[in-house]
Design goal:
Blueprint lengths: L3 H32 L13 H19 L3 H20 L6 H4 L2 H16 L6 H7 L1
Amino acid sequence: MLKTWLLKAWSPWLLSVLRIVTAFLYLLHGTQKLFGVPHSARGAVALAPRLEAAGVIEVVGGLLILLGLFTRLVAFISSGEMAVAYFSSHAPRGLLPIQNGGELPVLFCFIFLYLAAAGGGPWSLDARRRAA
């Protein structure tokens, strides 16, 4: 049986790992929108201004969250962007996220909302700035 005290002891560092992995995936969504990298099955398409703005938020926000710089503010903005993405693009296609393809925006939204409250963890530039 896994000792819960061990998990509790690691929780600050696992927060940083959650932040890093989530930000990397979020960043990839932005680079795919703006630069076509990584390659998408859809290929290069002209983006509507709203999707270009989303791509910019995802690239800049993803980089900042990945580094753990201004994590709370950027995560809050990113959470809002994902909520808008869900309700404008996915919700009209069906009631449940599993039906409308909106699982990722929902997960990103709530992980970013958690990061806005919890911060970036010990492996972040925010933590280094506080220590200095």
